[in-house]
Amino acid sequence: MSKMSSLLGFFVGLVLVGVVASSKFEELYQPAWAFDHFIHDGELIKLKLDNYSGAGFGSKSKYMFGKVSIQLKLVEGDSAGTVTAFYMSSEGPNHNEFDFEFLGNTTGEPYSVQTNVYVNGVGNREQRLDLWFDPTKDFHTYSIFWNQRQVVFLVDETPIRVHTNLEHKGIPFPKDQAMGVYSSIWNADDWATQGGRVKTDWSHAPFVATYKDFTIDACECPVGVSSSSVAPENAKRCSSSEDKKYWWDEPTMSELNVHQSHQLMWVRANHMVYDYCTDTARFPVTPAECVHHRH
């Protein structure tokens, strides 16, 4: 029995090497700008937007592979013109980035969520969907899962988008730059609501996004060594080997399971309102990753 326990403990130790798992804001994040628009209300964090400023926060560390999640309750009432974002990003002109952008709307209209993926500084991979619930009435969990095989955007653990590694097709994949985790609220009424036709009504300000339950279960990269010059070391250190095993590198995490695949198909069939892959006006030639993606 003691031998079995020690073996189990050894395996668990391997799985958890270098992983940060926490749920307290102050352990993981810090306000990034407009501190007077940042409210710490017990277990809740609130970001405020008015006609003076928005606000934002960012992680204290950068990460390479794993899963980051927040619970978020979006701006209630008339939120037209506002954008609340939750995203991961590296630094520099050739940065990688994974975006959730929640686009406000007039009262009674559905909230839209836009996702985007940047690889080596190139984005223009927008997908947009209407959520199947009112995200202003209660908290919902928004997550980004990332490993060397795929990037998965999840809403309440339902996958809404998958960006697959297609390097074998000559298509770059974001796997060599550590990323920070960020969130912000700002005015984007030049484009956010009905293409910019509906502007922000400042008489309804302040607009408030409320957060709780911050979770990062990922491989932490020391601050100051997350640049591209040490990317190979970060990628190696955050990948499974004979000496260590990470949960995100397990075979079951290399692609969606059958249930998740069905969930994604349901989301795309019933809630997607825009997909860059089918926008022939913007892209007369179908983007290469769209040709090869299964989803």
UniProtKB/TrEMBL annotation:
Residues 1-22 form the signal peptide. One of its GO terms (molecular function) is hydrolase activity, hydrolyzing O-glycosyl compounds. Residues 5-211 form the GH16 domain. Pfam families: Glyco_hydro_16 (PF00722), XET_C (PF06955). Glycans are attached at N105. GO terms for cellular component: apoplast. Keywords: Apoplast, Cell wall, Cell wall biogenesis/degradation, Disulfide bond, Glycosidase, Hydrolase, Secreted, Signal, Transferase. GO terms for biological process: cell wall biogenesis; cell wall organization; xyloglucan metabolic process. Belongs to the glycosyl hydrolase 16 family. Catalyzes xyloglucan endohydrolysis (XEH) and/or endotransglycosylation (XET). Cleaves and religates xyloglucan polymers, an essential constituent of the primary cell wall, and thereby participates in cell wall construction of growing tissues. This is Xyloglucan endotransglucosylase/hydrolase. The lineage of its organism: Eukaryota, Viridiplantae, Streptophyta, Embryophyta, Tracheophyta.
